[in-house]
Amino acid sequence: MGTRLVCCAAFCLLAAGSFEAKVTQTPGHLVKGIGQKAKMDCIPQEGHNFLYWYQLSQNKELQFLISFQFKRIFDQTEMYKERFSAECPSDSPCSLEIPSPQPGDSALYFCASS
């Protein structure tokens, strides 16, 4: 009888603290199995025109994924293009989505605004 190894990706999100920045990121934490869509939302600080998404994997450097300026894509990386999707509609929070998470996607994801 064989053993099955069940993998799941854990996505942690960094919420802004009580200092002046007012970036709101939800959910506070997210755990998904392989292939289960993961979606994270971010509301930038009022008056900010730029929004950025970053990934911090275990034992790796901070990696920039994508940025928006005035709700439109400003810059994006190849890694973003291959693994993620994002949008920043004018009538709802900006979001980052991993359509089909893999074990390597388990990381800390966070947004920032300026």
UniProtKB/TrEMBL annotation:
UniProt keyword annotations, A-Z: Immunity, Signal
GO terms, biological process: cell surface receptor signaling pathway; immune system process
InterPro entries, A to Z: Ig-like_dom_sf, Ig-like_fold, Ig_V-set, TCR_beta_variable
Sequence ranges assigned to domain Immunoglobulin V-set in this UniProt record: 25-112
UniProt xrefs under Pfam families: V-set (PF07686)
GO cellular component terms, semicolon-separated: plasma membrane
Signal peptide annotation: 1-21
PANTHER family xref list: NON-FUNCTIONAL T CELL RECEPTOR BETA VARIABLE 23-1-RELATED, T-CELL RECEPTOR BETA CHAIN
Protein name: T cell receptor beta variable 23-1 (non-functional)
Species of provenance: Otolemur garnettii (Small-eared galago)
Lineage: Eukaryota, Metazoa, Chordata, Craniata, Vertebrata
